[in-house]
Design goal:
Blueprint lengths: L20 E4 L2 E4 L5 E7 L14 H13 L4 E5 L12 H18 L3 E5 L3 H10 L3 E4 L9 H8 L2 E5 L17 H18 L7 E4 L8 H9 L1 H5 L6 E2 L5 H7 L7 H13 L4 E4 L2 H23 L1
Parallel strand pairs: 3-4, 3-10, 4-5, 5-6, 6-7, 7-8, 9-10
Antiparallel strand pairs: 1-2
């Protein structure tokens, strides 16, 4: 059984008043419509799904523009893999990978750009080049200067939960109550960062599917995503192509599109307002359908 004892398999209770905006630099992001689609652009040689495909600036920008054409609302650009077992990348190398791509994309479009990094120097340079969001797998704890960089720029921030480090996080993850512990951690990070001067409207949260979690942990977090929505900040979910989907379906990496789309639809139904994906066009279709179904359900509730 993927559901633990006491898990509610019924997806319909949702937070009645989710946040309707997310401030990202000079942009107020409207969250009142369909879930936003964040397209993944890994400019790394070793990311778990697409490592090595977009290491050149030209190839990376071409892929970025294709994702925009396919409907991406946000581009999430990262120069350091955080897959299980990944090793850290020197800051100079991460800058070399990320900055030219952000600059080139910005010349072509004013799309929201997120930088996927845990280094303050990389975040600062990315924001200077036109990024508006910091997506940090350490929830701004991995670099003592990161919170100040985010505060000074008014950047949007994605605070993710991760148990341990990428090198060891999947060794033997244990929780007494994964939903309660992840929620408590993210709640504390919101409180601490607001106390440090960050605008709460800049903060979004991510349960960190696959980051120090077993299949059962991941499923439980998705089933109870509404409990994280109750923290009052936008919830970002990234489950695209991840190994837990392969363990459930028996599918290899290149054959997980259907599972990824099914998981994205379920996450949206449970309250996710941003889905982080590799397959943008198909995921946009899911987001549009879920928005229509959600509007119909809301209409039925008040009729």
């Amino acid at each position: 059984m993927w559901l633990a004892a006491g898990d509610d398999p019924h997806p319909f209770p949702m937070k009645t008043s989710p946040p309707i905006r997310w401030r990202c630099g000079d942009r107020q992001v409207d969250l009142s419509g369909r879930a936003l689609v964040m397209g993944i652009l890994n400019v790394t040689p070793d990311s778990f799904s697409d490592g090595g495909r977009y290491t050149g600036v030209e190839a990376a920008v071409e892929h970025a523009l294709q994702m925009l054409q396919d409907g991406a609302d946000i581009l999430d650009i990262g120069g350091e893999s955080t897959r299980p077992g990944a090793l850290p990348v020197p800051v100079e190398e991460e800058l070399r990978r990320v900055v030219p791509v952000i600059e080139a994309v910005r010349r072509e479009s004013d799309v929201l750009i997120s930088v996927d990094t845990r280094k303050a120097v990389v975040a600062r340079e990315a924001l200077r080049c036109g990024a508006r969001i910091i997506n940090d797998v350490t929830a701004l704890t991995g670099d003592s200067e990161m919170a100040e960089v985010a505060r000074r720029h008014g950047a949007g921030v994605v605070l993710m939960h991760m148990l341990g480090e990428p090198q060891t996080m999947q060794a033997s993850p244990r929780y007494d109550d994964v939903v309660a512990e992840v929620g408590a951690y993210l709640g504390r990070r919101i409180q601490d960062l607001v106390a440090a001067g960050l605008d709460p409207e800049t903060l979004a949260i991510d349960p960190g599917i696959g980051f120090g979690k077993t299949v059962e942990h991941n499923v439980s977090l998705l089933v109870h995503l509404d409990r994280l929505c109750a923290l009052g900040r936008p919830v970002v979910v990234g489950l695209s192509r991840k190994s837990f989907l392969g363990k459930i379906t028996g599918r290899e990496m290149g054959d997980r599109l259907s599972a990824s789309l099914g998981g994205a639809a379920y996450a949206i139904l449970r309250g996710a307002q941003v889905i982080r994906v590799h397959d943008v066009k198909e995921s946009c279709d899911v987001a549009r359908l879920m928005a229509i179904f959600g509007a119909e359900q809301a209409g039925d509730a008040v009729s």
